[in-house]
Structures are given as structure tokens and as C-alpha cells.
Queue: 2 jobs
Job 1
Amino acid sequence: MIAILDYDAGNLRSVEKALNYIGEDTVITRDKDVIMNSDKVILPGVGSFGDAMEKLNNYNLINTIYDVVDKKIPFLGICLGLQLLFEESEETPGVTGLGILKGRIKKIPSIDNIKIPHMGWNSIDIKDGAKLFRGMSKQEYVYFVHSYYLEAEDENIVAATTEYGTHIHASVESGNIFACQFHPEKSSETGLHILQNFVNL
């Protein structure tokens, strides 16, 4: 069973639908017992950093997430779910993130007439040995929707990068923690392959 954390994020159902498509049992929940007894846990996310942290707090999910990480249950953050794993975001100064991983979320610079938010397909460069991308080529196209990006403190956790106005850390892996800035649930066969790799961990 895969638990999808329910904190009113906008892409819960599309993540659920993609997982069901590849034959996985899912539950959208904020029940701690259900979450802690799941095989895998996913933190989706669409929206603002500060609002999301407030909702995670209001639904008592912050300590549950820490417990999931401590228990070594494979955990996947998607889009805003990736950003929340880090310490802070330029989107909402003064709001502290989960701080599970070290790094900052920064605004995509408005240069070279690039459109913000970054919305659409972009190629990612994949690091050798990245577990989420097992069986895939060194470059894949995936679907992004974001205005802010990750700058991880430790380059060793970066599993994939992309370029869009700046150098973006597009995916990270650290122990049982995995995260993607892009949306695997909207990335066609490539995204389904990534989700299947997560399921198979």
C-alpha cells in the first residue's frame, strides 16, 4: 500500500491515478497509523511553500513525516513536495521548511525572456546509479510546472539536473528519501517508469 499524504494539495488525484494505472494500491490519508504502516509514502504538492507548511502543521503531518523518514520507509516528494523537504524558500521568507535535507529554494531568474512559471517538457540529465531512473537513458524528457527551484547544499544527493534560466537540481536521492521537482504523474511513459522504480525500491 502506498500512502499519499492528504494536506489539500492540488495533484493528489493525478498521483493516485498514475499509481493505480501501474497496478498499485493507494490511499489518500492523513491518518498516522495508516501512513506508518504503508510500504511507501508520497508527498505531492502544488501551491505555495508557506501555505503548504501551514497545512502540514495544521493536519499534524510534520512529525509523521519525520517518523516516516526515521523508520526508513521509502518517501517520495513531488514538485512542492520536493521543496518542502528543504530548509527555506524565497517564496515565503521566514517560513521554515521540513529541513530533512539541506538546501534553499530559489526563484527562477527572469532572464533571456524565459517564461515563468516554467511550464512544459524539459530534458533532464541523469546521474549514473540514480535509483528513480534505473533502466532509463542518461537524458529523459519530463513535465515541469514551477516558479521556484532547488539549490541543494550537497551535490552528492542530486540525481538529475535541468537547465531553465539557471542550473536546477531536478531530483534528489538521500537514503530512503527521493524527490522530483517535475511531475512524474504527468510525464507520460517516462513518468510511469519513474513511479514504477519508486514502487520497486
Job 2
Amino acid sequence: MSNEKKLTEQESLQLITSMIQKAKASYHDKGISAILWGVTIAIASLLSYLQIELNFDFPFDPFLLIIVAIVFQIYISVKESKLNKVTKHEDAAINAVWLTYGISILGLVAYINIVPNVSAQLSKQEGWEFVKHYINNTKPDEILSPFVLSSYSLFILLYAFPTLVTGITKKFVPMIVGAILAYVFFIISCFTALKFDLLLGALAAIVCWLIPGIILRRKFLKLRNNNV
């Protein structure tokens, strides 16, 4: 009877420990990371769309808001590592994926903003420049500033990467579906104008991260309330 009682106490302790660990899920499981990126990318995409549609400029590139998302993600990741001494290998891997994704997005933003100006300067040094020539000769030729063609399609393609990795690793179907839709949006964006690409990017952010993040958040809060 003593052995049976001792075993029951151990099982109870294991159950309590398991419940605590579930309540201390990573911020990916809590939906924080997904909501963070969903809101940031959707806002940046929509602001960029408004710049084109309404023909005005912000004092900064809206996609620099990504810096805020990266800083916040690093902060909550460090804070979480201090609170939870034990970090699952899959969570550490996903953290690395999202950090790499954020840096890659910043690199792409830098490329799009830097390379055209550098290209223009290099071409002038060589004695030539880009010119817009109208085939029907209805307008005079214009000096053209270099630009990256269909650049935002590359962003949409990159959005699918961390989403698919997280969805497969966590076995979370909404993110897997969101990643697949992002690939579909990427294909569509190859045939549309930039302003429509930006709308597709905002939609990709919503289906990849915002909606799955809200679903994760609700599940986490429900689990935590049940364990209280």
C-alpha cells in the first residue's frame, strides 16, 4: 500500500509539472511571435500601398518597422530564456529561423534601397544612364532612375519560409496552409503591378501569421485558464 501511495504521489507531481510546462509554452506557442510579425508586415505593406496609390511619401521606408519587430522578438526571447531555464531544441531552432528571417528581410530592404542608387552612379561614371523611351513617340525620352523589378514578390516568397518551418515543426495546420497561400500569392504577384503586390503581401501576412497567431493565443489562454 505504501508503494502504491508513493507511485500515486509521483504521478500527481508529474501531472502538475506537465501542466506547468504547458502553461510556460514558448512565445511561438503563445501566438505572440505570429501576431507580432502579422501586424508589422501587414501595416508596412498597406502603408507602402498608400504611398503609391495616393502619391505621397513617408519620411522613412515603412518596412523599417521590421527593426521594431526584430528588437521586440529578441527581447521576449531573452526574457523567456531567463524565466524558463529549460528550452526545447525545437523552440531554439524556430527562434533561430525567425531571427534569420528578420535579418534577411532587412537585407532585402537595404538591397532595394541601396542598389538602384549605386547602379545609377556607376553607370554615370561609365558615361551612360537609364532612359525611358516611349515606343509610339508620344512623349519625349526621360531619364530613368534604376529600380528592382517586381521586388515585393521576393518579400512574399520569403514570408512563406519561417511560416512553413514553424507550421511543420509545431504540426500547426493553419500556418502550413498560410505558407501554401503565400506561395500562391507569390506566383500571382509575378504578373501584377507593384501596388497590387503590396496588397498581396499584406494578405499573406494576415493568413500566414495574424490569423494563426490569434488561434494560438486563444488556445494558450484557454489552456492556462484550465490549469489555474
